[in-house]
Amino acid sequence: MTFSRRDFVKGSVFTVGALATASLPAMVRAAERPKVYFSRELGPESLIRLYGMINGDIGGRIAVKLHTGEPSGPNILPREWVRAFLAQLPNATVVECNVLYDSPRRTTEGHRRTLEQNGWTAFTTVDIMDEDGDAMLPVPGGRWLKEVAVGKHLLNYDSMVVLTHFKGHVMGGFGGSLKNIAIGCASGKVGKRQIHSDGNQLWAGGPLFMERMVEGGKAVTHHFGRRIAYINVLRNMSVSCDCEGVNAEPVRVPDLGILASTDILAVDKASVDMVYGLPEKVRAPLVERIESRSGLRQLSYMKEMGMGSDDYELITV
């Protein structure tokens, strides 16, 4: 199944003009619509404020899933932001998994060196969740995957905050909250291979890759249930993922702000809507990357998998 740009635009809730408003008129709002909170301000204060609006079910031992980046990557989230954010979350730990592609982060030892080089170890300890192997999580309703291997340490956490640098991606078209947990929580040796392989070849992209990635995300969201929340930071949005490090394409799309929600589909849909709401010439590089990789299939398949709603209420704060 494919998801065209016409289908996407038709299904979008907000346009450029709508982004200027805090929400739709009360008469057309439905109580069951997920809320997506938005701030144009970029910084740790805004990050913390938005988190306070979505953290009702977060507690216990908290995993904070973010992309810590390849060595000296220019676009990863500012460490001072994350440091301030973690100070507001008692019993929180940054979590990652090793990678499948050729990188220092393919091994735990190399991953730890990269964490030090990128400045994370100056203020926190990062749990490399697959350091001690894998754990299998079921994928309810999965078409391609019935279970997926995640880092074993994932089972040590009671809840998760998905703190995502929203940007383009060489295979996914875009990397939002879904990619952060689907690929980011999958173990490097097993889980990432499950998602990236179509049974015949590794690194098989296109719509079916999007579906496997969604199913990987479904395993994580099902595991945590209500105890998971999502923040997308729309800043330094290169068409390249942070996994490309210093080789990332230059940033050509303006910074937009921060979005937060307890609904993974809503927060990723709102992020994509904001990109599409930009003037055509401005959005062109990122839109081309999204559409050339069938990236919008992430959204439509999340809806089919019952992972949230694309009919959201945008609330500017």
Distance between the termini: 37 Å
Helix-strand sequence: HHEHEHEHEEEEEEHHHEEHHHE
User: How many helical stretches?
Assistant: 11
Tell me the radius of gyration.
Answer: 18 Å
> Per the principal axes of the C-alpha atoms, what is the gross shape?
globular
Biggest beta-sheet profile: 8 strands, mixed
Task: Describe what this molecule looks like in 3D.
The chain is α/β, with parallel strands linked by helices and 317 residues long. It contains 11 helices and 12 strands. It has helices spanning 5-11, 16-19, 44-51, 79-86, 108-117, 177-182, 191-196, 207-224, 264-276, 280-292, 297-304; strands at 35-39, 62-65, 92-96, 126-128, 134-138, 147-151, 159-165, 167-169, 173-175, 228-234, 257-261, 313-316. The strands form 3 sheets. An 8-stranded mixed β-sheet has the order 4-3-2-7-10-11-1-12, sandwiched between helices. β8 (167-169) and β9 (173-175) form a beta hairpin. α3 runs parallel beside α4. The chain is globular.
Structure in a nutshell:
32% of the residues lie in helices and 18% in strands. The protein has 317 residues and is of the alpha/beta class.
List the helices and strands and how they pair.
Blueprint lengths: L4 H7 L4 H4 L15 E5 L4 H8 L10 E4 L13 H8 L5 E5 L11 H10 L8 E3 L5 E5 L8 E5 L7 E7 L1 E3 L3 E3 L1 H6 L8 H6 L10 H18 L3 E7 L22 E5 L2 H13 L3 H13 L4 H8 L8 E4 L1
Parallel strand pairs: 1-12, 2-3, 2-7, 3-4, 7-10
Antiparallel strand pairs: 1-11, 5-6, 8-9, 10-11
